[in-house]
Amino acid sequence: MNNNYRIFNKDSLEYIKTMRTNSVDFIFTDPPYNLNKYSTGNIKFSHRSDINNDIADWDKDFDPLDYKEEFLRILKPNGNLFTFTSYNTIGRWHEVYDPIFDTFQFFIWHKTNPTPKFMKAGFLNSCEMIACMWNKGHTWNFGKQNEMHNFFESPICMKPERLKDPKHPTQKPVKLLKHIIQMATNENEVIFDPFMGVGSTGVASLELNRKFIGIEIDEIYFKASEKRLALL
Length: 232
Ligand SMILES: C[S@@+](CC[C@H](N)C(=O)[O-])C[C@H]1O[C@@H](n2cnc3c(N)ncnc32)[C@H](O)[C@@H]1O
Prior knowledge:
Bound molecules: S-adenosylmethionine
Structural class: alpha/beta
Oligomer: single chain
CATH topology: Rossmann fold
Number of helices: 6
Number of strands: 8
CATH superfamily: Vaccinia Virus protein VP39
């Protein structure tokens, strides 16, 4: 059993206040995208599972500003903050965090098998953005120039990795998370995910011999994380 993690079934904004100052090397997270208000509802099919168009009830009212003070307090001075985000929230991340980090960039995850759009009335949502912020003295484990692209290609999370019960609508593939963790941290460093869902960042962190702290507000997703991490 791996003892290098602590996870909590709490509201992260509350829990984070109890964390030690300068105790985290890397905040790597996947908070709500605020896409719920653009939903046109799920689409039902007889021959396949529903196309999940509305993501989830939790996907609303997230303001990166609410976490600014606590993120800065718990992060070490040379720590990094990477966060999945969406086209309509990346501007807010930039507005709030660019003035306080040395560098703000973005990274693209290209999904090779995005959800189809049968009406062909717009682009597929095949790219997901990760806003990346770092300070001087940060860790970059790059080898060659071609390892430094801010782009990664992989399928969305599929069987057998994809959990069936509970099914989380935005479970991230561990392969993608490991690629990023590997380049932005060293072994034994502390990774914090305040919106951990079913614990994918935790799995990737522990498999790479990093330490992990995770928080999830939903009890069902939290229990799924507990189960996954206990297997490592
Ligand atoms: C985009 S999902 C993360 C998915 C995760 N990356 C995975 O692979 O499973 C965001 C998660 O944040 C959780 N969440 C929303 N508000 C929260 C809060 N205030 N504190 C903790 N978790 C929260 C939601 O329940 C949801 O599971």
